[in-house]
Structures are given as structure tokens and as C-alpha cells.
Amino acid sequence: MCSVCMHSPCLVGCPNDVGDPVYECELCGDDIVEGDEYYEFDGCYYHEDCFKDNAFDILLDSGAEKGTAGDY
Ligand SMILES: [Zn+2]
Ligand SMILES: [Zn+2]
């Protein structure tokens, strides 16, 4: 039984009331559950926060390149 709302399954609105997993986050490996905001990129799914924190790495992994202009 949930220690917050004292119900099992949780009442709607309980902080422990997580929805059903829908996708798995490519970065942290945790479930992306119903109601979560997520990003899809290149066939992978990410939590909103994970994606924002790692957007540059994700882009670089997917073929984006960083260079120094004029450095030939
Ligand atoms: Zn609860
Ligand atoms: Zn994540």
C-alpha cells in the first residue's frame, strides 16, 4: 500500500501515482510513463529533462559535428 495516499493502487493525484510505462529513456534507462513529456529523436525516446540536459551530446552522437572555423 502506498505510504502517501494509503491506497493501492494510488489515488489519482498522489505523487506516487505514476502511470504505465510507455517508453524507456535512452539516457537514464528509466521508464517514460503516461503523462510524461518526452522527446523522440532518431528512433530513441528521452525524458524531457534528460534530453534538454544532453541535447548537444545526443546531436553529436547522431552525426552533428563540432569544429573550429578556419581550422583546416
Ligand atoms: Zn499513493
Ligand atoms: Zn531519462
Strand order of the largest sheet: 1-2
In N-to-C order, the SSE pattern is EEEEH
Determine the strand fraction and express it as a percent band.
15-25%
Give the overall silhouette. rod-shaped
Main pleated-sheet profile:
2 strands, antiparallel
Question: Which radius of gyration do the C-alpha atoms yield?
Answer: 18 Å
Small molecules in complex: zinc ion
Approximately how much helix is present in the residues?
10-25%
Q: So how many helices?
A: 1
Question: Total strand count, please?
Answer: 4
Describe it for me?
The protein is an alpha+beta fold. It has a domain at about 20-60. It has one helix spanning about 50-60, and strands at about 20-25, 30-35, 40, 45. The chain has a two-stranded antiparallel sheet. A two-stranded antiparallel sheet has the order 3-4. The protein is rod-shaped, with a radius of gyration of 18 Å. The mean pLDDT is about 90. Bound molecules: zinc ion (ZN) (2 copies).
List keywords for this structure.
72 residues, alpha+beta, two-stranded antiparallel ribbon, 19% helix, 21% strand, binds zinc ion
TL;DR?
With 72 residues, the chain is α+β, with helices and mostly antiparallel strands. The chain contains one helix and four strands, in the order ββββα. It has a domain at 21-61.
